[in-house]
Amino acid sequence: MAEATIRDVARRAKVSVASVSRALNGLNNVRQATRDRVIAAANELGYVPHAGARSLSLSRANALGVVLPDLHGEFFSELVRGMDREASRRGYFLLLSNMHAEGDQAPTALRAMHGRVDGILVMAPHVPPEMLEQALPSTLPALLINAPVEVPTRPSIRIDNEAGAQAAIRHLVGIGCRRILHIAGPEENIDARERAEGYFKAMARYAPGIEPLLFPGNFEEEAGEAAARDMLSDRRGVDGVFAANDMMAIGCLQTLRAAGVQVPDEVAIAGFDDVPMARYLSLTTCRVRIAEIGERAVARLVDRLEGKIERVLNERHQPELVVRGTTAGANSDEMAEHGL
Amino acid sequence: MAEATIRDVARRAKVSVASVSRALNGLNNVRQATRDRVIAAANELGYVPHAGARSLSLSRANALGVVLPDLHGEFFSELVRGMDREASRRGYFLLLSNMHAEGDQAPTALRAMHGRVDGILVMAPHVPPEMLEQALPSTLPALLINAPVEVPTRPSIRIDNEAGAQAAIRHLVGIGCRRILHIAGPEENIDARERAEGYFKAMARYAPGIEPLLFPGNFEEEAGEAAARDMLSDRRGVDGVFAANDMMAIGCLQTLRAAGVQVPDEVAIAGFDDVPMARYLSLTTCRVRIAEIGERAVARLVDRLEGKIERVLNERHQPELVVRGTTAGANSDEMAEHGL
DNA sequence: TGCAGTCATGTAACCGGTTACGGACGGTCT
DNA sequence: AGACCGTCCGTAACCGGTTACATGACTGCA
């Protein structure tokens, strides 16, 4: 039994396809008796409208494309979850396509979305903007998440990485740290760059005269471990660590502790993101409400699709410093709040 | 500038739409000169084929529907990641739709997918099968993940929860536990039920004569904490805990430790899932390779779409016991391997 | 020269919906 | 009776692709 179409229903209800369409879509210019016949026929045939055909003729797909890099557990999960929540609230589907790092997959993925989504959410913290601009069909509404730069022509939503980094450094200095090491993220990543930038600015401001210390990393836990080993072999007076993300902070924390270094007494540690694990390890960090970013991104895109005008094009999500055990003694939690 | 269509390209290249289609799709019955003209015209117009129209006429969408309950962080993330990886490898998109617990959303979501996906992956550990069967368009290939029962007519993939539970209990008994408490998951959840079932069977087998102890939970961390508080107020000789998932195990672990109970010396603890955090808390658990399940599910569904016949309809994923600190002293790791 | 066969191309039907337009019908008002 | 209006419904065009079939040009061969 092939899938029933609207014409089958029409035949069965002895009306035209137009009437079927009208009846099923609740238009009011249909006699009640006709509507009933149509509905009955549809049920008997198990008719389900063909969404693809519908969206072709309406030129409206009720779907949003989501193009993400191959990112890690929590971030991916939370982002998509937030998006999905808002999307289903607004009656949209999410069409997912990971754009693996290979790069040239991005244009392909974007092209393949044309004609099946009404708008697109792109997260590409490492893709050069001109490439993005070129790959995005210019007529397809898009919203950029953490794009490397704020393309003036495209709305975007970003994390205020500098503000987060500054808050973290301010806090570390506040509890007495002076020689603070920054474990950086990958250079091509915009978040990583901004966090480093924030670190430098904050050091200049809150710890003037103390020279910044950088350890290159890649957002992976191993980088944090490497940084820790480096410190263990030559401490250089480091009494504080600010990692560009939680995973590196955790790698560092675990390795230092395993080597008997007292955290936070000898070295205080802060991360960035507030992954769920951070709470368990009592890691001080800059909380980024990822799901919220996803929701907000979808909400803004859908608003635009539905014709609502936007006041602000480039939004910034403010991270929130969460002080925990790795920067505060067991009962000195509130000390941190007053610090500095 | 409205989006260019194939007819625009045809006009510009001074050929028919048929030739454009042939040229761009790489059919060989096109003169090279014509193909070049078409490609040039397409580039000049920035032509991107309309995937919706294409899939309508080919009756093939190159997309898979994914219907998931509103599940938690890691699980969701890993599952979708695995699916996405395999899907993009096979040239398919993923169309996501969380079916929130409200229940009657499921049929709606499934209906809306008709005509825009070629097949569907459904994860519904709590939806009664007859409802599923009724909601699934019978012509749409579907693969069930952790469905409450194995619907004989639908291929499925499941976790072998009983095997996992048995391995955990066997291990706990092996290291000397006798009075083992099971913190159960929600009753309507099939995984939870099977894990409890496995617990009972394993107790009967490995600890005969010792009566099983059940604490009702809901997969949330708080349930583990409640179980711990219960134990703290009346220990009843409990020397081992097997939680139906890691989050409850973690809640229990943290609460017991906070109260000064020595883990694993006084009470050993094992969980289920192996969420990333488990490693950091050194939690013994039954590892479920979630991403692998997602990959496998997509692979099987795509195989079927492409006409490959299936030998096994109902597959079971085998969890793997990972022994860590919550059931073994610092240097007694391998002891566990020999235990019993 | 005429005919079959090959190749490139165009015409139009089709996928499954939506909807502009117009026709048929019945009622109301002058 | 005739003009006018409103309601309900059917015909057919359309969304943007693919493709079966027809057409015409060209080749090779008798």
Give a description of the structure.
The structure is a homodimer of 340-residue chains. The first copy, chain A, is α/β, with parallel strands linked by helices. The first copy, chain A, has three domains: 6-49, 434 Repressor (Amino-terminal Domain) (Orthogonal Bundle); 62-158 and 290-317, Rossmann fold (3-Layer(aba) Sandwich), CATH 3.40.50.2300; 161-288 and 320-338, Rossmann fold (3-Layer(aba) Sandwich). Helix content of chain A is 46%, strand content 16%. Chain A is built from 14 helices and twelve strands. In chain A, strands 2-1-3-4-5-11 form a six-stranded parallel β-sheet, with helices on both faces. In chain A, β6, α9 and β7 form a beta-alpha-beta unit. In chain A, α10 (221-233) crosses α11 (246-258). The longest helix of chain A is centred in the first third of the chain and has 18 residues, at 73-90. Chain A is elongated, with a radius of gyration of 26 Å. The model of chain A is unreliable at 330-340 (pLDDT under 50). The interface between A and B is large, with 49 and 49 residues. β2 (93-99) of chain A pairs antiparallel with β2 (93-98) of chain B, so a sheet runs across the interface. The structure holds a DNA duplex (30 and 30 nucleotides). Chains A, B: GO terms for molecular function: DNA-binding transcription factor activity; transcription cis-regulatory region binding. Chains A, B: Pfam families: LacI, Peripla_BP_3. Chains A, B: Residues 4-58 form the HTH lacI-type domain. Chains A, B: This is LacI family transcriptional regulator. Chains A, B: InterPro entries: HTH_LacI (IPR000843), LacI/GalR-like_sensor (IPR046335), Lambda_DNA-bd_dom_sf (IPR010982), Peripla_BP_I (IPR028082).
